[in-house]
Amino acid sequence: MLRTLGVAMALTVVSASPAAARADHAALDTLVRAGMAETGTKGIAIATIDHGRIVSVDSWGVRNAKGDPLTPDTVMYGASLTKAVFGYFVMQLADEGRIDLDRSIGEYLPKPLPDYTGPGIENKYARWSDLAGDERWRKLTPRLLLNHASGFANFGFLEPDGKLRFHFDPGTRYSYSGEGLILLQFVLEQGLGMDIGVEMQKRVFDKVGAARTGMMWRPDFATNLADGWTADGKVEPHDERSKPRAAGSMDTTIADLAKIVAAYVRGDGLKPASRAELARPQLPITTRSQFPNLQPDLPVAERHPGLSAGLGVVTFQGPQGPGFFKTGHNDSTGNIWVCIEAKQRCVVILSNDVRAEALFPRLVKALLGDTGTPWAWEYGDLPWTKP
Question: For the stretch 71-104, what's the b/e string if a residue is b when 16 or more beta carbons lie within 10 angstroms of its beta carbon?
């Protein structure tokens, strides 16, 4: 039995009877409300999935400073959860033979990567000409970009001089890089002539019935939209993203995201081997924490056992067997999606308040049990990341 905030409770994802389901929901409601009061969290939404099927979708709190309620249909930032959904989309292309995960990106581009310059090409997200003279870009493949093994910093514009560069040979280690996902998007656009906003809408969002999800802003989102709260309680308006970005532009709702995650974990639209490949451990992760990125390798004995990169997700080994997760974060957003492969069980959490991240370990444990999710690696050595 889990004891949190003085409240003793044990939750299960699937209940044997309607009465038990009501009891489980009441226990979750108590846990969430107590956690929101403790942390100051203004809004949070949670979905649960079992055997690849949606079991519950709930929301608590408010979506803006006016106090309008946060509902399951409120549009919220997906943030970096976008990366996992993008990986699902890329695997569909691989199944169709449109792209080979292990083929050099240079074989898809009509001209060398550093030769792409000009408006719409060189901007704060993609300064490919910075790589002129360093042929290591030819070693990059779709797999390595989805594995966060590009060798780039998170984004080139964050470098001291604002220039994109390699910090290690591609494929030799893991270090989180949104720039790598932006590059793969660029390869699909320039090499295959794709508009990823249109393609992801058609291949993923529309197929699962995610009617209020998109890779860029739509005016109809404004009818039920979440603003956000920062760590110091400041309200931030929802940004109207004007361009699709594989690294993090997805807007979605908890009801829609539950459909997307359920389809992902079932492997809808994929060959069974391809679904397995999404969350197969492919590259060991050897750093003490996720951020700051480009950390040195830990000695082997000090590394997190079983922690590896999948295709847009992080994989781990826990007491219930293999699992995977992805987080999404900005100054006013805290999101997470955790799945246990056994019985295709998942918890999905969206919050329009970054303070909600402190609740994630207790909520995931309450809903999935002890998973082995590497909280301290993902969020750093904070008190709330301890078991």
Answer: bbbbbbbbbbbbbbbbbbbbbbbbbeeebebeeb
